Amino acid sequence: MSSNKALRKAKHDAYEAKQEKRGKRVIDWIFIGLIILAVIFMLYSITKE
Questions:
Q1: pLDDT value at position 38?
Q2: How far is the C-alpha of 32 from the C-alpha of 39, rounded, in Å?
Q3: CA dihedral over 41, 44, 46, 49, signed as positive or negative
Q4: Dihedral, CA atoms, 6, 8, 13, 16, nearest 10 degrees?
């Protein structure tokens, strides 16, 4: 029974690590998108004058 519990815990830990990696990737893409939008807005503001 304890080996089953250890296997389940190992799978759970691996799943948590995978989810953390995905979450960090999503946050990185959000920041990249915000930076791109800021640059576009800056260029728009400069050329509007």
A1: 97
A2: 11
A3: negative
A4: -170
DSSP assignment of 6-44 equals HHHHHHHHHHHHHHHHHHHHHHHHHHHHHHHHHHHHHHH
Give, as one character, the DSSP assignment of residue 5: H
Give residue-wise pLDDT tens across range 4-28. Answer: 898 999 999 999 999 999 999 999 9
Structure tokens at 31: 């920041």
The predicted model scores a pTM of 0.67
Tokens in use for 27?
A: 């946050």
